[in-house]
Amino acid sequence: MTLSPARVPATGVRRLTVTLYGYSFLDDFVLLYPVYALLFADTGMSLWQISSLFALWSITGVLLEVPSGAWADAVSRRLLLWLGPLLTAAGFGLWVLLPSYWAFALGFVLWGAGGALGSGALEALVYDELDRLGAADRYARVMGRARAARLVATMASVGLAGPVIALGGYPAVGAASVLACLLTAATATRFPEHRVRPETGEEGWATTLRTGLAEVREDRSVRGALLLLVPAVAAVWGALDEYTPLLVRDLGVAEATVPWLILLIWAGVTAGSLLAGPAERLGARGLAALLAGAALALAVGAAAGTVAGIALVGLAFGGFQLAEVLADVRLQHRIHESRRATLTSVASLGTELATVATFGLYALLGTGAAHSTVFAVLAIPYAVTALGLARSRAATARP
Questions:
Q1: I need a labelling partner for 289 at 20 to 30 A (CA). Which of 87, 127, 178, 319 fits?
Q2: What's the mean per-residue pLDDT of the chain?
Q3: pTM of the prediction?
Q4: CA distance linking residue 167 with residue 71, whole number of Å
């Protein structure tokens, strides 16, 4: 039977989105997520050691982010999407087989490398495949749902982590996490990739990187999205997320209750992702209001030291997640297809650098202050970003 022209794009979009949602779900269905900070603490790691592990994770991303994006543009984005989860699986295996500082460090290097391979490559592949099908206008909605799938997986892993750790301890959650990574790699092989890749001679990779960075220098709007908005929106709350189990445990709740309160936070983040499609039309002023409201919710919720305060933290994280998706959408609309993965990785590089700085600042502040105080203080960068966006919008509107 021959498909009609209208049917072919619909079928292509369906195949792409089903694969994307499955990949996104499995990639974050990791039972170690809600408990690995506790694993480090129970192994005897200090706050400085835990923060140094998080920083090492981000530094690995800093070193590999842009080269991996250029590699994806020069070779194959799908290749990197299935290779990355295999590296992550090896890292998780080390954590539970040889729990020690150096095993945790090597595991984070492998995880950081795996994340860098997929960062930029996934957004670029999805945008270009949608564009090929004449559906680029669906990108915000599709990526918002993909992030929601990730968050549903995170919430499912949070809900399952308690019972699984009660039955088999950290080795059981580690084994489940490794299996999820292997399934993610298998799902990635199902992604369509119709992009005509450039010829890859000796200078293919270097040329892709050089032309991508030239676009950053020459286009002010691209440069602004890459080096200001995306890192400013994504970095701080991404770093704070790693400390949420410690924030929750400071409430005095039982260990078994910690995953459920983390689940409450991620319910707010999921709601933020699902609002990406309707919120795509928000201008600079609307985005500024969103960031300001989320910053206020974070400061008040963290300082409250109650379960209701944790719900406010979840609301704040949902606002930051929505703003992050909207920033990515604006970036994708501004960059050229042949350099999409490269420039998306440059944005991720800015985010990683800001995240490393946040880890260091958190460790510094956390030495003499409670986790709730540090969370409240780190709402300030979002208030500053919101003010900058509002002033920029006002300057643009001024005759």
A1: 127
A2: 81
A3: 0.70
A4: 42
* Amino acid at site 102: W
Integer CA distances (angstroms), 134 to 142, 215, 219, in order = 14, 25, 25
Q: State how far the Cα of 187 lies from the Cα of 150, in Å rounded to an integer.
A: 14
The model's pLDDT over 288-310, given as tens digits with 9 standing for 90+, comes to 899 999 999 999 999 998 889 99
Question: What CATH superfamily classification does 11-190+216-397 receive?
Answer: MFS general substrate transporter like domains (1.20.1250.20)
The domain ranges of the chain are 11-190+216-397
- What does residue 29 show for φ and ψ, rounded to 5 degrees? -85, 70
Full DSSP string of 75-86: S-HHHHHHHHHH
pLDDT band at 6 (very low <50, low <70, confident <90, very high): very low
* Sign of torsion over alpha carbons 344, 345, 349, 351: positive
Longest CA–CA span in the chain (Å) reads 70
**Nearest-10 crossing angle of helices 121-132, 77-97:** 150
